[in-house]
Amino acid sequence: MSTTGVSLKTSGFGQTQRRDAWWAQQLLTFGVFSAFVVYSTWAAFQGEFYAWGPYLSPFYSPEIFGSSSHALFGPKPVWWPALLPFSPAFIILWAPAGFRITCYYYRGAYYKAFWADPPSCSVSEPRKKYRGEQSFPLIMQNIHRYFLYLVFIIWIFLVQDAWKAMWFTDAATGETTFGIGVGTIVLTLNVVLLGGYQFGCHSLRHLIGGYLDHLSKAPVRHAGYNCVSCLNRGHMTWAWMSLVWVGFSDIYVRLVAMGVWTDWRIL
Ligand code: FES
Question: Best substitution site from 105, 231, 232, 243 to test ligand 1's pocket, by max atoms within 8 Å of Cβ?
Fold first, then answer.
């Protein structure tokens, strides 16, 4: 048998034989993700214009304490430290933020886009040794499953918000009637997109699938597992659509509450 020696050269950082624009996706990820983080942080600090009529911004839901009629337990509590700024968003926004940051898909995307490790598939990395996520701090990413439990609870409140967004109270008569405004559609679509993202989570797939990677222990594939797997195949698309739409939902409620936009009634 004849053999041929092939020398494998170690390339420097960023070197590749790829001819496509491999950096474009990373640039887009960096831009969209950064814009979302900056906007959502700014919106969370505002503490006002987050509700209008039956609408409540998803960044502020559930509103545990707050000044709007949606608040579950009334206004800002007296025990809140005077030195700390207060916004109803501070109490809950960390959970969906943590869920996104620890998401298996986003991890792969922002490791490439934010610290180029690796810059892309088949593109040289900045360091020689692969440390993975088995040591601090990245081992903390395993907390993802617990964020999943929390965002499911929040999602149930968002479903309730979408339902409430269909009931409008007449300021003159005080009568509440069914109706559909543009905001109703915005908040309902938000729930659908977030549901598509969350129900396609890798952790959920493992949770309900159990030993499907152990043939001897594998249960029969059930409809729930197949459904989650189906959503999981489009996880990246659900992730970005739900991210953009949840941000837009806050913008919509905010601008309507500020009187910049008019909420058109369809029904
Ligand atoms: Fe993306 Fe769980 S893996 S949400």
Answer: 105
Percent share of the chain, pLDDT over 70: 91
Q: Which of 102, 107, 201 to mutate to test the pocket of ligand 1 (most atoms within 8 A of CB)?
A: 201
pTM exceeds cut of 0.85: yes
In the chain, % of residues over pLDDT 90: 72
Domain range for 202 is 23-76+84-257
Cis, bond preceding 118 (omega within 30 deg of 0): yes
- Ligand 1 centroid vs 112 CA: distance in angstroms? 17
Taking CA atoms only, the protein residue closest to ligand 1 atom 4 is 201
Please give all residues whose beta carbon lies within 6 A of any atom in ligand 1, as ranges.
Answer: 103-105, 144, 201-203, 235
- What pLDDT, in 10s, does the model give residues 182-227? 999 999 999 999 999 999 999 998 888 766 666 566 655 778 888 9
133 lies in a domain? Answer: yes
Q: How many domains does the chain have?
A: 1
H-only helix segments in the chain: 23-46, 88-92, 94-102, 104-115, 144-164, 182-198, 202-209, 223-233, 235-257
Is the alpha carbon torsion for 224, 229, 230, 235 positive or negative? positive
Residue 254: its pLDDT value, please? 98
Looking at ligand 1, which residue's alpha carbon is closest to its atom 2?
A: 201
Residue 64 resides in a domain: yes
